[in-house]
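hey can u run this one w/ magnesium ion bound, need the structure tokens asap thx
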Amino acid sequence: MRGLSKSRNHFLVIVGIFIGVAVLCVVAYYGVYVPYVESHTTTNQRSRILMDTTVDIRVDARNSEELVNQAFAEIEGIEKSLSRYVDTSEVSKINAHAGQWVEVSQFTIDLVKEALRISELSDGAFDVTIGAVIELWGFGTGDYKVPSEEEIVQALKTVGYEKVEIDEAERKVRIPEGTILDLGGIAKGYAVDQASRLLRKSNAKRSIINAGGDISVIGRRPDDTPWRVGVQNPDNPADIRWILPLEDSSVVTSGDYQRYFVFNDQKWHHIIDPRTGYPARELKSVTVVTESATVADALSTAIFVLGMEAGSRLVEEMAGVEAIIVSQDGVWISPELEEQIL
Ligand code: ADP
Ligand code: MG
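ok here u go:
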């Protein structure tokens, strides 16, 4: 009996010490460490034109100015590798040698794989082999025109994500001759993700990156509430129709008002339905909320093509994905997001 109560006393002493240390740690963290970090945190915010859009980066960190520079450099580097309008990019190399195996960096392999995964999920609504059709319409070069039916039929023959081959071991990609790879529907999200990753690794306390509607945030606002992201009304982009709370996550919007030209009183925009070769007409805008900006970027384009019914079904099937879909005659908001809207 005596032995038992002795070991019980020991046990209580150990528990006491443990609780004492835990309390001390909490007091030290909130009393010393948090004020230390806060008092050494600076804010830096700047905009630059990159990836053919305005990229705005705000970082709160001890070395915020340096981190903003590094984040821009990261995005610039990715644009140089992935833009098909940069002659020396890896994508240009793949396109210039269509029909042959081309060695590329691991991140190009990873991104092409991710693009193909979204193609499969969306039954080909998202298809990065759409390049020849985009070229025909003049998106990218700015030489806009409505192509003839015959031109579209010819260009569509070069489209088909299932014909993209990847050799993981050799780090090589091959597309069929005549096909043009265009990562424009996913690369911006990827660049935003990579810049956020860099900031997170460098211990940024909080950040918000906005690349023309592809948005990713770290942490919360200085007042400890989530960041607030406005979603535009596609009929009047100056009007913010919804405000979404965002914390360590991404929001991407694809809209028919973002890049288009007007011909014969019709708006011809740059999200093309790979089944027809024409701009997808059913929807006006699609906003996707999910952790990865890469996934959100590709999915917003995919859903724009899929339309309301198949698009909302895809969102419901995917874990951790929320969306706002605006069509010509209605709005669908995924139930969980509906509850969060501010
Ligand atoms: P934004 O660049 O305005 O954010 P998106 O992310 O929707 O818009 O991407 C549109 C771009 O994606 C086009 O400029 C083109 O390069 C490419 N694209 C267009 N249609 C498709 C499609 N069906 N699948 C994959 N990429 C597409
Ligand atoms: Mg996109």
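The longest strand covers residues 236-246. anyway lmk if its weird
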